[in-house]
Amino acid sequence: MNYHAYYPVDVVNGPGTRVTLFVSGCEHQCRGCYNQSTWRTDSGHVFDEAMADQLIRDLTDSRIPKRGLSLSGGDPLHPANVADVLALVRRVRAEAPDKDIWAWTGYTLESLSPAQHELVSLLDVLIDGQFVEAEKDANLVWRGSHNQRIHRFDR
């Protein structure tokens, strides 16, 4: 898996202070997407063990307490990303169990594959649905267009 950007301290992509990873790869390629540079799966940087270790260190750093991890992109549920994102989410659950995990995807909850469902079962929040430029609303919280839905899961 590749990633395009990493923010060890982020206050925009979810509630509170967070660690945010923008993975590479998105097959939806929505018109008006603000992050088109992430569409190719081979763009950005390789997400390796050193990067995963850094993410965990940043997530658990008590100098700036983080509420959780945000996964965006690209699309963390892109078939090319699912195995690596699942491994990362499992590691976060094991090493930082008090942190919440949010993810954004262009897929809808109803359209997910079994592998994608396995990943989603470990999330606290999923924002689903493609960005639709005609339904864009800058006043929406945590989503870009009215068709996108926020799913909160009891954990």
Structure write-up:
The protein is an alpha/beta fold and 155 residues long. It has one domain: Aldolase class I (TIM Barrel), CATH 3.20.20.70. The chain has three helices and seven strands. Strand 5, helix 3 and strand 6 form a beta-alpha-beta unit. Helix 2 packs parallel to helix 3 (114-120).
What is the alpha-carbon Rg in Å?
14 Å
- The secondary-structure class comes to alpha/beta
Which architecture would the CATH scheme give at its second level?
Alpha-Beta Barrel
Average predicted local confidence, pLDDT: 94
Give the total of domains. Answer: 1
- Percentage of residues assigned to helices: 10-25%
**SSE string:** EEEHEHEHEE
Question: Total number of β-strand segments?
Answer: 7
CATH superfamily: Aldolase class I
- Distinct helical segment count: 3
Structure summarized in a few sentences:
With 155 residues, the protein is an alpha/beta fold. It has a single domain (2-152), classed as TIM Barrel. The protein is built from three helices and seven strands; from the N terminus they run E-E-E-H-E-H-E-H-E-E.
List the helices and strands and how they pair.
Elements: E1 2-10, E2 18-23, E3 45-46, H1 49-60, E4 68-73, H2 82-95, E5 100-104, H3 114-120, E6 125-128, E7 149-152
Parallel strand pairs: 2-4, 4-5, 5-6
Antiparallel strand pairs: 1-2, 1-3, 6-7
Keywords, please?
155 residues, alpha/beta, TIM Barrel, seven-stranded mixed beta sheet, 3 helices, 7 strands, 23% strand
